Amino acid sequence: MSYPHNPSQQYPHPRPGGGYEPPTGYGPPPGYAAAPAYFPPGYYQPFSPWPPPASWGLRAVALILDSFISLLIFAVIFVPGIFFSIEIFDAEGKSMDETPEMAVAMLVLILVGVAASFSYFWLTHARSGQPLGKKLMGIKVISLRTGMPPSLGASALRQFIRMMLGLLGWLGSLLNYLWPLWDEPNRQAIHDKAASTRVVKVRGVAETPIQPYNY
């Protein structure tokens, strides 16, 4: 659409508090939410259509709860499997220290337990963005591109990076978990940045969808 011929109304006007506003007389039609302020290319735009980032404290509590659940999943698979393997080898009259089958059985149980723990975070994040711990804390993981829970691929990458940082030792995990304290504006951990996700607060946040409108 063309602007009036008055030169003062041809371009967006700077606002006293920062940002720009559309020419006088132009605005969203009835029933539409006000569109965000127009910002020229390169200008910092603080507007975001997603809920606010979750606090570090909520994320920490949710992580503790979910880590306990994933550890419980691992234990439910590993511990009974070990006892079952011991019973089998004892029945066959084999010593656990003298047979390689026991070592293989332990390795398989560890891998299955780790895969189950991985899947707890992977599948719940991809399905709803909320493992049980995050759900209890009223926060969730969303994609920065869509605002929806991350895809299966992004969720798997997110969890994989988190595990790899953990394998680097306590320093890798500590740096990853403290990163949201100084990251702006999305408060992302390192594994969030790798998967283009963010953790947002959803409890107590009103859902106000923004209707698209172009001037």
From TrEMBL:
Residues 1-11 have a biased composition (Polar residues). Keywords: Cell membrane, Membrane, Transmembrane, Transmembrane helix. Residues 54-195 form the RDD domain. Its main location: membrane. It holds the Pfam family RDD. It comes from the Bacteria. The chain crosses the membrane at residues 56-83, 104-123, 160-179. This is RDD family protein. It comes from Nocardiopsis gilva YIM 90087.
